Amino acid sequence: MKLNENLDTYNIISSFSQNPIYDFDIYAQGYRNAAKTLSDKLLTQNRIADYDGYPIIFLYRHAFELGLKGIIYSGLRLLSLKNRESINDSKFYNTHHLGELAKSSAGILTTLFKNFVDLGNVIKNIESVANEYSKLDYNSFSYRYPIDITGNYSTKHRQQEINLTSLTNCMEDLLDSIEVLNFGLDIEMEQEVQIFEILSNFNDH
């Protein structure tokens, strides 16, 4: 049996858009959905194996990371359109540090949406969860591997414990907020692109 054989209509397509740097929020949705599906299944059982929970903790963390990167890349593009100048976003390509990503996204959101009443509370929650998650899984290794690159425990503490119900409730609430922010950025960007095109056509005349 081949790994990738066209047997039916259950085909998964990636690299589907012209500019994939703005697809982070779509990928985040996939990892979030997978985490929630697994969590819901485990939480109906009387007993669960620890290793059944590791993918969930990783998937929620990865969804969080992707959601923040979605805010950053879309936000930087929107800022560049508003200011009519390019902004270097390459420093975010290889980082998995939630604290750094949360701080960067907070700065971008504050710059773009100064008059948004509830933004401060949303940002505070994002930064708080990022800091808490970083203590449990600093660089996205802790729930993918049993050891780090030096051969030590991948977690900060031995017998590190996370409550699955608490994790799921917290992350679902947080990722709801991030999805709203990314949706808002998409709308703002579409409007700004239209303005940019109108001005470009006007200048051509």
Please tell me about this protein's structure.
This protein has helices at residues 24-42, 50-83, 98-112, 119-136, 164-204. With 205 residues, it is an all-alpha fold. The protein has one domain.
What are the SSEs and their pairings?
Elements: H1 24-42, H2 50-83, H3 98-112, H4 119-136, H5 164-204
How many beta-strand segments? 0
The succession of helices and strands, N to C, reads HHHHH
Helix content: 55-70%
Summed up, the domain count is 1
Number of helices: 5
Q: In this structure, how is the largest beta sheet organized?
A: none
Task: State which percent range the strand residues make up.
Answer: under 5%
- What distance separates the N and C termini? 61 Å
Structural class estimated from helices and strands: mainly alpha
> Whole-number average pLDDT?
90
Low-confidence stretches: none
User: Outline, from the CA principal axes?
Assistant: globular
What does the radius of gyration come to?
Answer: 20 Å
Question: How would you summarize this macromolecular structure in one to three sentences?
Answer:
It is built from five helices and no strands.
